[in-house]
Model the fold of this input.
Amino acid sequence: MMLSLAENYENNASSVLSESDYQEMDNRRLNHLKEKSESYSWEKVQQKPKML
Done:
C-alpha cells in the first residue's frame, strides 16, 4: 500500500518550477562556483539588519 502511494505521488507530482527557472539556478550556481557573484557566510547574513 505504501509503495502504491509513493508511486502514485511520483507520477502525479508536477514541478512548480519551469525549465527556465532551473536554467537560471544552474547559471547562478556556476557563477557562484566561479566566484563571479557575491556570497555571504551564514554569520554575515545573521548580522545584516532585518528588512520588514
Notes: The radius of gyration is 18 Å.
